[in-house]
Amino acid sequence: MKKSDFLFSRLVNLMDILRSSHGCPWDRKQNHRSLKICLIEETCEVLDAIDRKNPHKLKEELGDLLYQIVFHTRLAKEKGHFSINEVIECIYSKLIRRHPHVFEKEKIMGIDKVIEAWHKRKIKESNGSIFDDIPPILPALHKAIKVQNKLSLLGLAQSDIPSTLRKVEGGIKELQIKIKNGDKLSGLERAIGYLLFNIVNLARLLKIEPETVLNDATSKYMRRCKGSIK
Question: How many CB atoms lie within 10 A of CB 219?
Answer without folding.
Answer: 11
